[in-house]
Design a protein that fits this description.
With 238 residues, this protein is of the alpha/beta class. It is built from 11 helices and 8 strands. It has one domain: Aldolase class I (TIM Barrel), CATH 3.20.20.
């Protein structure tokens, strides 16, 4: 049996599909293809560089979808705060910044109704890569330190690997939202390093999971999304 930390979140919204495609027309095609199997979408840097990002954001909101604007802002505090204010004016439900407390403190008052999430360590980064970047602490210590500081600075939640979610719940409690990307059924051989499956992510304390390639590359993507939705529902009903 899993612990439900935020029971107010509808089960159907806990699956976030990553619209990691090159342009808005491909994104629209995916939304149409998935239909009611997905109600929550992540739109990130790839779509931003393809153009019409905010047009798509508005279309998703108008269609009653939830939007996770994953742009991972990282700059001086004043610039992050201004960027968050601009993005929040389009009313995404969730938006991301990197876990730097000064920037988070500056951005929180500008986030409007959007919930500000702090990215701890990208799930594509291995322990060896973290050390090579000059970080002396172990991965779990680094993630916890960044997460704790981000929440103290006012972030509503965190983005972390499902591997670290259990530790963060134990240390930070029920209040923070936790979003776990890099969800895989097994070793996928792609650029994600610190991955877990759907059941493990929620058992470890996730409120949301972000799934991209396992749905996008499936023989029947809509059926794959529905299967994940069904597995989540069973977890929360047990």
């Amino acid at each position: 049996m899993i612990t439900i930390y935020h029971p107010e979140i509808p089960i159907a919204e806990r699956l976030i599909f990553a619209l990691d495609v090159a342009d808005v027309e491909q994104a629209r095609a995916w939304v149409a293809r998935l239909g009611d199997a997905v109600t929550h979408y992540k739109i990130g840097l790839e779509l931003l560089s393809g153009g019409a990002y905010f047009e798509l954001l508005g279309e998703l909101k108008d269609a009653g979808k939830r939007v996770f604007a994953d742009l991972k802002f990282h700059d001086i505090p004043a610039t992050v705060a201004a960027a968050v204010a601009g993005l929040a004016s389009h009313q995404p439900d969730l938006l991301t910044v990197h876990a730097y407390p000064a920037a988070i403190r500056a951005a929180v008052p500008r986030a409007g109704t959007s919930k500000l999430l702090a990215v701890t360590v990208l799930t594509s980064i291995s322990a060896d890569e973290l050390r090579a970047s000059g970080v002396a602490s172990a991965m779990d210590e680094t993630v916890l330190a960044r997460a704790r500081d981000a929440i103290l600075a006012g972030a509503a939640g965190l983005v972390c690997s499902g591997l670290e979610a259990k530790h963060l719940r134990a240390e930070l409690g029920a209040a923070p939202l936790i979003v776990c990307p890099g969800i895989r059924a097994a070793d996928s051989g792609d650029d994600q390093q610190r991955t877990v499956n759907v059941a493990t992510a929620f058992a470890n304390g996730a409120d949301y999971i972000v799934v991209g390639r396992p749905i996008r590359l499936a023989h029947d993507p809509r059926a794959a999304a529905l299967a994940i939705q069904q597995s989540i529902a069973k977890l929360f009903e047990s």
